[in-house]
Amino acid sequence: MTDFPGAPTGPREGRRLRVLAAMSGGVDSAVAAARAAEAGHDVTGVHLALSANPQSFRTGARGCCTVEDSRDARRAADVIGIPFYVWDLAERFREDVVQDFVDEYAAGRTPNPCLRCNEKIKFAALLDKALALGFDAVCTGHYATVVLREDGSRELHRASDMAKDQSYVLGVLDERQLAHAMFPLGDTLTTKGEIRAEAELRGLAVARKPDSHDICFIADGDTQGFLAKHLGEAEGDIVDEDGTRLGTHTGTYGYTIGQRKGLRLGVPAPDGKPRYVLDISPVNNTVTVGPSEALDVTGLTAIRPRWCGTAPSGPGTYTAQLRAHGGETEVTAEPVGEELRVEFTEAVRGVAPGQAIVLYDGTRVVGSATIATTERAREATRPI
Q1: CATH code of the domain in which 278 resides
Q2: How many C-beta atoms surround the C-beta of residue 208 within 10 A?
Q3: Are residues 188 and 72 in the same domain?
Q4: 28 labelled as ligand-binding?
Q5: Which residues are identified as catalytic?
Q6: Co-location of 348 and 249 in the same domain
Q7: 3-state secondary structure labels for all residues of 162-228
Q8: In 10 A of CB 67, how many CB atoms?
Q9: Is 190 contained in some domain?
Q10: In tens digits, what is the pLDDT along the chain, a chain of 384 residues?
Q11: Residue 225 known to bind ligand
Q12: Whether residue 325 sits in one domain with residue 308
């Protein structure tokens, strides 16, 4: 039997696995499912219905959860020649992803719903159900790699192609989940165009389908409008670092740390330079703005750490990624109780409570945690 990079290995190597392929309706997951089937595994495709009203999700091939996407996934499964099902996880998705997204913004934080979906839906609810039904692994179209160590443990590593690497949003996976994860595209040193060409050769109609973007459950892409509908408008002040009122807002949820555009301030800065969002306080309904240098962060505390393997036992030197498409920065990090303390080698900007920080040792993902507070060169921000 053939195999491919990213397939679970170890005692099961060379054995035909029962694989549940999560098929979003996009080209990546379709090619991943096809490769798993071609490798000789017993593959079943499943599309996750994540909304009680799928028409309210993105359409026009921009989402991953619409009726259109479900049909595309079914057609791809038919071409591959594998069974296909639609599983209703709408209620779980609403509670664990959508409501979490709203609650985080209401608290003045900036969440990552895709990361939460991977943690709570694709590799918790889906994997648990798959294992209960006797499947050995869940296969997805993520670009990341699972590596088996000599002691039998598994590590999550970056994809071979850094331009497509998605390990940041998978940093919440623990070792048990990694043991049942399959990423057939992770070691693919090919461009997205070549993946599309492969899909075309396989006869998959999704070969030309655009990639998904933005947040799938916000149909029109208007995040502020979505939050206003759920949280209501609440006019408050935009102030400078001294507390001087510079303008007003209709909801603190419409802002994020480091934001420059859309502030609509009536009073220019004394030096004429742009202002940026420095702090968001739902408690007193204010947004604080100031100069770019006030955004310099030298350290942070993160909560709810999740480790891709054994947790570090003391301080260590790592690189950290702070955004899904951001670069790496050198840090010193140490677990302290249920928290993670991080110091940056050089100050960084645009770090917001609610975001995830993912630690790397080379290409290996060490773990992920949620940013709670930041320490700035000028002053510390409020707690989470």
Answers
A1: 2.30.30.280
A2: 11
A3: yes
A4: yes
A5: 117, 216
A6: no
A7: HHHCCHHHHCCCCHHHHCCEECCCCCCCCCHHHHHHHHHHCCCHHHHCCCCCCCCCCCCCCHHHHHH
A8: 15
A9: yes
A10: 444 444 444 334 557 899 999 999 999 999 999 999 999 999 999 999 887 665 544 444 344 567 788 999 999 999 999 999 999 998 999 999 999 999 999 999 999 898 899 889 988 889 999 999 999 999 999 999 999 888 888 999 999 888 889 999 999 999 899 999 999 998 776 777 889 999 999 999 999 888 776 688 887 778 888 999 999 999 999 999 999 999 999 999 999 999 998 888 877 788 888 999 999 999 999 999 999 999 999 999 999 999 998 889 899 999 999 988 889 999 999 999 899 999 999 999 989 999 999 999 999 999 999 999 999 876 544 444
A11: no
A12: yes
Is 133 flagged in the annotation as binding?
no
Residues 332 and 256 in one domain: no
- 327 marked ligand binding residue: no
Angle at 254 between CA 210 and CA 343, to 5 degrees: 85
CB 146, CB 104: distance < 8 Å? no
User: Residue 194: which domain range?
Assistant: 18-208
Task: Give the type of residue at 335.
Answer: P
**Residue 254, marked binder:** no
Q: Is residue 332 domain-resident?
A: yes
Are 355 and 325 within 8 A, CB to CB? no
Please state the domain count of the chain. 3
